[in-house]
Each structure stands twice: as structure tokens, then as C-alpha cells.
């Protein structure tokens, strides 16, 4: 007696379909979350930009608005009332940012590369010494004395560059990234007769673009936003940075508003579009960096994730 074959249903298909459906739901939820976060981050910048092009009287009467009721350039006219000084400050800041960043990244990468090699003698002691500088430093007064009395860098363009060439945290970030590179490539190059410096230039640097881009962006932001160096070491108007110049404009506005006791000072303070000027200063200061960041974004994210794998 023969028994009829009973068809067996494939029980895996519903399971796979359910998993795929759940995965799509999670992806949709993450996309919505990041869209909301993007809006939350972008909205303040749009509001600042809108206020900088608004009329000061409209801001006082109706408050902030994403669309200016009356398009007005008074804030930017006040900021650029001396365009030659602002242009010169841009040049000094750009020179400081480009030259200091390039030298700093190259020198720190040369320090970090040997520290990523376990065969380096005294590696632990050198790492501890560099880490120690992150916890303790000489302080502002000794640093000021060294820079002005011994190095004589005050009122010189190099005061923005030489004292800030090395950052311990950036060295450790680069060291962590270099340690993820495959050793087989370097061993093959050594067997072919390449020197360590040739390997560093021809293999390490090209393979480390994400890590180098990350540190480059950090260094560029630090140099671009630096204003204290101008305040401490520079008294010549043709050597001050953009950030320090904008800060002085803001301080002058606050001073006029707080000390407008007599009629002349009160009239002068009332003519300054203070609220819109503050937003225009933010746009002028942050605008170039906001334009540059998208070009580094891919390498920046990759460099952070890879550099965080090993420590």
C-alpha cells in the first residue's frame, strides 16, 4: 500500500520576508531620524543668515524671521566699512590656516608613524611623554615669556604657526590610524630596498588620506578660529586675524550700547544695527569653513571610524 506524498511548505520564506520587512522598517526609522536631525542643525544657520540680511527695525518690532521682511545690507556694510582691513585680516587668517595646517599635519604624521611600530625602542616612554603634555602644560605666562623673550615671535606672522605645530591628541589619532595599515606592504617595500622615509612618503601618506583629512580639518578649524594669539602677541594692525578683528567690532558695539549716557553716544549707538551685525559677524567668520567642510566630509567620517578601532 502506497502513501501519497504530502507537499511540504517552505517555512523559510515567511521568516526571511519578516526579517526583510523589519530591516526596511528600521532603515526607514533611521532615515526619518537623521532627516529630523539634519533639519534641527540646518535651521539655526538659515535663521542666522536670514537675520544678517534683515532690517534692524523689523527685528526689534516683529522678532526673528526665516524670510527677511525688508532685505537690508546695513549689517554687512557696517562690518565691511573698512574693506581693506577686513581683506587683510582674511589674508592673514588664510595664510595661518593653510601654512600652519600643512606643516602641522606633516610633522605630526612623521611623529605618529614610528610610534605606530611596535619594534620602536622606547615607544612606551615616548607615548607617555606625549600623553603627559595633554594633562599638564607650562601655563600662559611661561608660554608668553618663551614666545616673546626667547623666540622673539611677537608681531611676526610666524607667531601663528611655530608655537602650535604639534598637538598630542592629533598625534595619537594619526598613530591609531597608521596602526591599521597592512604591514605586508611595508615589509615588501623594505625588501625591495626602500628606505623608511620613502615608504612614509610613497605608501603611508597615500594610504592614510581619511586619517590625514580628519586631522587636517581639526587643525584648520583650530587655526581659523584662533583669536587669542592676536590678542596676546600682535599689536600691528596688518597682522591681526579675522576672528580677532570681528571680536573687536563686537566689543565696540557692546561698549557703545553700555556707555551711551550722553546724547551723541546714544545717537551713535542707535544707528548701529547691533542684532543684525552679530549675525553678519557669525556668517563672515564661519562661512568659509562651512563651504570647505563638505569636501572633507567623506574622509572625515571614515577617518574617525577607522582611527577609533585601535588605540
UniProtKB/TrEMBL annotation:
Matching InterPro entries: MetI-like, MetI-like_sf
Subcellular location field: Cell membrane
Stretches assigned to the ABC transmembrane type-1 domain: 90-296
Record membrane topology: Multi-pass membrane protein
GO annotation (BP), single: transmembrane transport
Keyword Hydrolase recorded: no
Gene3D superfamilies found in the cross-reference section: MetI-like
UniProtKB keywords: Cell membrane, Membrane, Transmembrane, Transmembrane helix, Transport
Record bears the keyword Transport: yes
Transmembrane regions listed in the UniProt entry: 30-53, 92-113, 125-145, 157-178, 199-221, 277-296
A single GO cellular-component term on record: plasma membrane
Principal location class: membrane
PANTHER family: ABC TRANSPORTER PERMEASE PROTEIN MG189-RELATED-RELATED, POLYGALACTURONAN_RHAMNOGALACTURONAN TRANSPORT SYSTEM PERMEASE PROTEIN YTCP
Family membership noted in the UniProt record: Belongs to the binding-protein-dependent transport system permease family.
The protein's name: Carbohydrate ABC transporter permease
Species of provenance: Ructibacterium gallinarum
Source organism phylogeny: Bacteria, Bacillati, Bacillota, Clostridia, Eubacteriales
Amino acid at each position: 500500500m502506497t502513501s501519497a506524498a504530502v507537499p511540504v511548505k517552505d517555512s523559510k520564506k515567511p521568516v526571511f520576508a519578516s526579517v526583510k520587512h523589519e530591516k526596511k522598517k528600521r532603515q526607514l526609522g533611521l532615515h526619518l531620524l537623521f532627516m529630523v536631525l539634519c533639519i534641527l542643525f540646518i535651521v539655526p544657520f538659515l535663521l542666522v543668515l536670514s537675520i544678517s540680511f534683515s532690517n534692524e527695525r523689523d527685528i526689534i518690532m516683529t522678532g526673528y524671521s526665516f524670510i527677511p521682511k525688508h532685505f537690508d545690507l546695513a549689517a554687512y556694510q557696517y562690518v565691511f566699512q573698512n574693506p581693506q582691513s577686513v581683506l587683510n585680516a582674511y589674508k592673514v587668517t588664510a595664510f595661518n590656516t593653510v601654512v600652519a595646517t600643512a606643516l602641522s599635519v606633516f610633522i605630526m604624521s612623521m611623529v605618529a608613524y614610528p610610534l605606530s611600530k611596535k619594534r620602536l625602542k622606547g615607544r612606551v616612554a615616548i607615548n607617555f611623554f606625549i600623553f603627559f603634555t595633554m594633562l599638564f602644560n607650562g601655563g600662559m605666562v611661561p608660554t608668553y615669556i618663551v614666545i616673546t623673550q626667547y623666540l622673539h615671535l611677537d608681531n611676526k606672522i610666524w607667531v601663528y604657526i611655530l608655537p602650535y605645530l604639534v598637538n598630542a591628541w592629533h598625534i595619537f589619532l594619526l598613530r591609531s590610524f597608521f596602526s591599521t595599515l597592512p604591514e605586508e606592504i611595508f615589509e615588501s617595500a623594505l625588501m625591495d630596498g626602500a628606505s623608511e622615509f620613502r615608504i612614509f612618503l610613497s605608501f603611508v601618506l597615500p594610504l592614510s588620506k581619511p586619517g590625514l583629512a580628519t586631522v587636517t580639518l581639526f587643525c584648520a578649524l583650530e587655526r581659523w578660529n584662533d583669536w587669542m594669539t592676536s590678542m596676546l602677541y600682535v599689536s600691528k594692525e596688518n597682522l591681526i586675524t579675522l576672528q580677532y578683528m570681528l571680536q573687536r567690532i563686537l566689543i565696540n558695539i557692546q561698549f557703545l550700547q553700555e556707555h551711551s549716557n550722553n546724547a551723541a553716544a546714544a545717537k551713535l549707538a542707535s544707528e548701529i544695527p547691533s542684532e543684525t551685525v552679530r549675525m553678519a559677524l557669525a556668517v563672515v567668520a564661519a562661512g568659509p569653513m562651512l563651504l570647505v567642510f563638505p569636501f572633507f566630509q567623506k574622509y572625515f567620517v571614515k577617518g574617525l571610524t577607522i582611527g577609533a578601532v585601535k588605540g
